[in-house]
Fold:
Amino acid sequence: MTAADTLLSVKGLTKHFTLHGDIYSKLAGEKTQVLKAVDGIDFHIRRGETLGLVGESGCGKSTTARLVTRLIEPTAGEVTLKGEDLLAFSRGRMKEARKEVQLVFQDPYSSLNPRKTIMHILDPELVIGDEPVSALDVSIQAQILNLFRELQKEFGLTYLFIAHDLSVIRHISDRVAVMYVGKIVETGPAAALFDEPLHPYTKALLAAVPEADPTKPAPRLTLQGEVSTPIDPPPGCRLCGRCPRESAVCAEIAPPLVDVGDGRQVACHNL
Structure:
């Protein structure tokens, strides 16, 4: 892959929100808390492909979409669009860039001006869909997903497609990034990732998908406990306390996202 092949590149992207307590908390001398919504993620999207970003609600997917479009400013990190530093764009240049990068909101009626026609807003190179079909009936979802594919072929579009529905991600994506509590834990070609997940969290997600056959047994839970909190998380792996592979190092050091071959990356100490 060359730099010319990459439309969007994200490195170390971070968004931390400081939580200010009420006056009683301050008088009691309680420490200010930090919510690490997105905590140092890396990914790239090649021209003409679809990257699916999947994870449970609250893992940081929508925050990532808003950071990439600069609807909110990151705490740290790099966002490169067509080789240019997006975070260094002036207000005027960013206004032009938003014609190239368009965000499809989960609820467009609360986000877009209905008086603006499509000719005012929808000629982009990169389309970021934030749960764009989650509110639709299943029969309509398939039609809309097929329409996304047709538009991609006709106009050479590139997609960052955000969803929590694994069947939607599998249908639409060329590559998939799995997110858990502000971190990307696995990326890879969609077919390989769904056929042979490597990270314990990815395995648990796929195991939890219900089967259409009622005669098949219910999926066996592979993770215990509740989803970790992004508020002042411990220094180690976000999956600590839930993972069947957990070892001593997991609680102390956050595993980096490392290349394991065949275009796949995994953040786990104990593969």
About this structure: The chain is about 25% helix and 30% strand.
